[in-house]
């Protein structure tokens, strides 16, 4: 990777970071980014996909598989020189180790000229198993709901990360699932804001794209336990938190903390975006989800895994819009949010904003014929795009809803906004606290750079 390049040259280069890409959804996001870029973007443009894995060996293996996928692309088969339009770069990070996150941030700041989007996909379930009796019973008697919003996964309570530094004092506890799914990403995104600020044409402002889950519901999130240390649904809690952060990121009530999060640290950034004609717009924050697809986040033996896929297919035949089954289909919404021109995303959210709403949660949806596309996903307490009352987009009204879902009320919206204000405040306070601890640790060990 190189940080060289003039402003005009950078306009034809797209740089996207994808976390957790060694398997499953993250790997498919990388594959689909390359495929859609070659299909839809002019031949003058070049895409660099920087992906992360845990460990050099996984990174090297993933790079080899991504390059093989690129060689098998139909466009590349017809025109082998098209491979030069896409570059994959491997990076190593452990999102539960904040010093590892900081090290990755520094390498990115030093080695690439900008970032047009970061797809925060890496995740950890924290589950210990499945209540098979409940699972079989509910799938047999209430198939569609049971395979869309499962309640039979068994989670551990109180899992924390290992000590983050070698400082001879006690550190604040960090929830392992919270750190892997949210806080490690949060720290990384803040650190690379200087690169996101240099994004411009053709994408528009840099984008922070959180990958959430259809299972995320506010009832599983407790603001008094923001790290999910007191619940056995820490995964669902963490994904609900990402929804709240992304969907309230452009509200006046959260602005003080969002502006702090999107500010450049003088010790980490530079004024290079001013010299290179960057967009001068703050990064936009979006949230997507992959629907329900088959991944290894819940380890299953092969017979159980294929039985699960059959149940997903059956749910799709029953009319579920969310059972993408394939991780490639599941990558639809995230890739759309990362590669689309800003006008496309603005137009998609325009019906909600014109009716007093804001950001929507974009999910990967597939019909019975296997045709996928991104669509708005209803969020408890936020509805579709934060619009009070009946959904304003007709297809949102016609789409099958979660049992018990109700139209958004003024009171619901106010509670959600207040929740967003509280979560942003606590996340920023936690980030600042940990940045101080990491600065101290690096000063004590003599490591780090200014």
Short description:
With 450 residues, the protein is of the alpha/beta class. The chain has 18 helices and ten strands.
Q: What would your notes on this structure say?
A:
The structure is a single chain. The protein is of the alpha/beta class and 450 residues long. It has a single domain, classed as Rossmann fold, CATH 3.40.50. 44% of the residues lie in helices and 12% in strands. It contains 18 helices and 10 strands. The strands form 2 sheets. The chain has an 8-stranded mixed beta sheet with strand order 3-2-1-4-7-8-9-10, with helices on both faces. Strand 9 and strand 10 (372-377) form a beta hairpin. Helix 8 (176-191) packs parallel to helix 10 (234-247). It is globular and about 60 Å long. The chain starts with 6 loop residues before the first helix and ends in a 5-residue tail after the last helix. Mean pLDDT is 90; it is low at 269-279. One of its GO terms (molecular function) is 3-beta-hydroxysteroid 3-dehydrogenase (NADP+) activity. This is 3-keto-steroid reductase. Residues 265-279 have a biased composition (Basic and acidic residues).
Q: In terms of structural class, how would the helical and strand content be classed?
A: alpha/beta
CATH architecture field: 3-Layer(aba) Sandwich
Question: What's the alpha carbon Rg, rounded to whole Å?
Answer: 21 Å
Total number of distinct structural domains? 1
The first-level CATH class name: Alpha Beta
* CATH H-level homologous superfamily name: NAD(P)-binding Rossmann-like Domain
The residue-averaged pLDDT reads 90
Low-pLDDT stretches are 269-279
GO molecular function: 3-beta-hydroxysteroid 3-dehydrogenase (NADP+) activity
InterPro entries: Ergosterol_Biosynth_ERG27, NAD(P)-bd_dom_sf
Organism: Paecilomyces lecythidis
Keywords: Lipid biosynthesis, Lipid metabolism, NADP, Oxidoreductase, Steroid biosynthesis
């Amino acid at each position: 990777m190189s940080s060289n390049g003039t402003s005009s040259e950078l306009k034809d280069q797209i740089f996207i970071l994808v976390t957790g890409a060694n398997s499953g959804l993250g790997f498919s996001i990388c594959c689909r980014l390359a495929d859609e870029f070659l299909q839809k973007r002019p031949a003058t443009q070049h895409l660099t996909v920087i992906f992360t894995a845990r460990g050099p060996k996984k990174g090297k293996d993933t790079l080899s598989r991504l390059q093989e996928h690129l060689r098998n692309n139909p466009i590349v088969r017809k025109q082998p020189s098209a491979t030069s339009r896409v570059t994959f770069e491997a990076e190593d990070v452990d999102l539960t180790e904040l010093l590892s996150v900081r090290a990755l941030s520094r390498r990115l700041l030093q080695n690439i000229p900008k970032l047009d989007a970061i797809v925060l996909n890496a995740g950890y379930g924290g589950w210990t198993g499945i209540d098979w009796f409940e699972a079989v019973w509910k799938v047999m008697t209430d198939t569609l709901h049971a395979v869309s919003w499962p309640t039979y996964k068994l989670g551990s309570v109180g899992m924390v990360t290992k000590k983050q530094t070698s400082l001879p004092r006690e550190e604040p506890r960090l929830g392992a699932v919270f750190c892997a799914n949210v806080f490690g990403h949060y720290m990384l995104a803040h650190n690379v804001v200087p690169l996101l600020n240099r994004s411009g044409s053709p994408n528009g402002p840099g984008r922070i794209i959180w990958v959430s889950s259809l299972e995320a519901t506010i009832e599983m999130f407790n603001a008094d336990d923001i790290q999910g240390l007191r619940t056995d649904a820490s995964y669902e809690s963490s994904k609900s938190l990402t929804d709240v952060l992304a969907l309230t990121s452009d509200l006046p009530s959260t602005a003080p903390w969002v502006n702090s999060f999107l500010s450049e640290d003088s010790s980490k950034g530079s004024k290079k975006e001013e010299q290179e004609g960057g967009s001068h717009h703050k990064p936009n924050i979006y949230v997507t989800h992959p629907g329900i697809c088959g991944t290894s986040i819940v380890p299953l033996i092969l017979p159980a895994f294929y039985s699960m896929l059959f149940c997903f297919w059956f749910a799709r035949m029953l009319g579920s819009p969310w059972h993408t089954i394939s991780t490639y289909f599941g990558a639809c919404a995230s890739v759309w949010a990362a590669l689309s021109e800003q006008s496309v995303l603005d137009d998609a959210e325009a019906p909600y904003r014109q009716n007093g709403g804001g950001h929507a949660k974009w999910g990967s949806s597939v019909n019975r014929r296997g045709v996928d596309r991104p669509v708005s996903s209803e969020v408890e307490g936020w509805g579709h795009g934060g619009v009070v009352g009946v959904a304003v987009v007709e297809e949102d009204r016609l789409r099958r809803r979660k049992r018990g879902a109700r139209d958004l009320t003024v009171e619901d919206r106010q509670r959600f906004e207040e929740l967003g204000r509280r979560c942003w405040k606590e996340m920023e306070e936690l980030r600042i606290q940990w940045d101080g601890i990491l600065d101290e640790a690096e000063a004590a060990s003599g490591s780090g750079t200014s």
